[in-house]
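User: I'm writing a short methods note and want a consistent example. For Potassium transporter Kef, I'll paste the sequence; you return only the structure tokens, no commentary, since I'll be parsing the reply automatically.
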Amino acid sequence: MENVWLVSAVWLGLALLASVISIRVAMSVALVEIMVGALAGNTIGLQLTEWVNFLAGFGAILLTFLAGTEIDGRVIRMHFWSSMSIGVVGFLAPYLGVLVYARYGIDWTWPQAQIAGISLSTTSVAVVYAVMVETGFNKTEIGKVILAACFINDLGTVLALGVVFAHFDWWLALFGAVTAAALWMLPRFAPWFFTRVGHRVSEPETKFISLVLLGLGGLASIAGSEAVLPAYLVGMALAPAFLADPELPHRMRIIAFTILTPFYFLKAGSLVDFQAVLAAAGLIVVFLALKMVTKFVGILPLTHAFRFERREGMYTTLLMSTGLTFGTISALFGLTNGIIDQRQYTILVTAVIGSAVVPTLIAQRWFQPAFKPIEGDFAPGKPSRKEA
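Assistant:
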């Protein structure tokens, strides 16, 4: 019989180990947690119980929500076309490139090739946001542009998965209607509610936000969508309230990064089967390289066109080449619905996890741009970079 306390101790012990390693090697804790999870999953065998899956899923939802709250309207209005263009091309280039290769290069069926293309078309809001918070780039102009482009990219992924494979029914219509109503009401009701309840030890603001996220996430699951999609939209809707009260997102980040997100990143790493990876290493490398190459071909020229500095352009392109949440969700969708088999799932998930580690590591080590807080960029007499 499972001893929930000992299992919890193992997971949190691994999370603590990852934190210490990340401090020692100056690497994002999210990436270290993925690698520690992979090592532990293949040596001691991490138990993916129902409660672990819940905490990991809630961690992804909360992290995605917090990423949405970082979207600054004035920055997005100033850089709307760059964020939109980079996001759309960031989805289309790898989707089409991987789809064509899977269908005609290795003779996967059309539905299997579509799953491959969708799985590797993503960015990783979770990884990118975690890196932004650790480095402080979530408070910079370039950081907010990247987060907005990540959202557009992943929205394309979700829409593609929905259009190609979803069942259009009344549940989907209900989910859309309730989400639209919530997005209209929250910016009006939430600030009033936060003012009334104030900052209390019982954290009523956090409980209210969690209620909204879990409620919409439940409807999304019933409708065949994903719980993380409404989380990002809710975050964007509440961004002005969060920007006006920096203490609230700080408290929520403590909750997320202490308890919830370690389960998500450790679980993502534990899904990698080293034996299966070795058996299909060549194909995994090809898929990973194809994703990164198509991202670079599509995005890097756009960063030049929109007058990003050289390091900013490389940093943006590399972070847009990441993938994790929606990539693994798409691959798991294909497996559970019998579209792809276990071997194909392992290939895709490993390539997706590789894309969470490789480009992020390169970006942090060699292409991190100069830190430019928004306060400085928007200060009088200091013109911000304008789009072409």
